[in-house]
Amino acid sequence: MVQQYADAHTSPEPALLGQLVRETHLQTLMPRMLSGHFQGRLLSMLSHMIRPRRVLELGTFTGYSALCLAEGLADGGELHTVEQNPELRSRVERYVQQAGLTGRVHLHIGDAEQIIPALGETWDLVFIDADKIRNRVYYELVLPQLRPGGFVLIDNVLWSGKALPDYPLKPADKDAHAVRAFNDFVQQDARVENVLLPLRDGLLLVRKCN
Ligand SMILES: C[S@@+](CC[C@H](N)C(=O)[O-])C[C@H]1O[C@@H](n2cnc3c(N)ncnc32)[C@H](O)[C@@H]1O
């Protein structure tokens, strides 16, 4: 109900992204992984507010959130996005081209843990949306590469409500335990300030202290 009202009072999805949503639903096994209209507009808005010169995304999938984040790039800015599944490459590159972002959005196929250290950039904004069990690993890899005052956004931090302490978690639910432990870790991390937005599946906003 509230989400429907929020959707109805959020700027519409650009046509190209609507086309990407349709194609993702028709041609991939887990279309629900993409950010979608509401979160996509939020990512675009945050990116416009930050005006980043360098953005890193972990977990490209079909490229929806990459295109949203790229909307706010500063002049001369670039976005690097990392995806482990090589089968997604051609679709992502086609949409990057259609969006007029060739040369500004760079897709890296491989394991994020291997690729992050090799990129050697200083990031203004990082979006972590890959395998949730390694959120902490990615966080520790990107934090030293983040400029002071830079931002990290982490998706799915509510994990369908399983992050909440009174949810009866099964011991074997490793993803949920990892999400919980990560959220608790960031809350204690003196290097950053953080706000958890309970939107969609939870988006954690982190700012590296100066
Ligand atoms: C939730 S989806 C990303 C959705 C996308 N950010 C969006 O909002 O449209 C997660 C993606 O991370 C990728 N992934 C998982 N583990 C990874 C890893 N270790 N390195 C790089 N990509 C990974 C998966 O293949 C999947 O496509």
Automatic annotation (TrEMBL):
Organism annotation: Hymenobacter edaphi
InterPro entries: Cation-dep_OMT, SAM-dependent_MTases_sf, SAM_O-MeTrfase
Alphabetized GO MF terms: O-methyltransferase activity; S-adenosylmethionine-dependent methyltransferase activity
GO terms under biological process: methylation
Listed name of the protein: Methyltransferase
Alphabetic keyword roster: Methyltransferase, S-adenosyl-L-methionine, Transferase
Source species, domain of life: Bacteria
